[in-house]
Amino acid sequence: MDSIDFSEPAWLINYYRFIGTTSLILNSFGVYLIIFKTGRLENFRYYLMFTQIACTLTDLLFTFLMQPIPLYPLFSFSTVGALPSYLNLSHQNLKIFRPSPFLLHYANWKAWLFVLLRSTKQSL
Fold it and tell me: What's one Pfam family here (predicted)?
């Protein structure tokens, strides 16, 4: 181990782009289903839509805008993509763009509470 290579792995960047394109197509299909094909979900579909949009934004951030590149054997990473390249933002500045885990947890908690209350109401 004479030297450590910190070059950008082309296979990982291509993998991010493939996964990002696939997830964008699937997330768009999920939004379509939530908007046009939900039947009697009433208010629950808004929680589903919020979760779907948060997942879509997270996927776009980590696969197109900011792609994390691990710097093995160090416990650190660097970023490549549109935001670090064109806007000269480092990965420390990009932490503000991610959706809050608290908001995602809150939306999922409310959705499960709605399902639980709805199922108990129907069983009565």
Answer: 7TM_GPCR_Sri
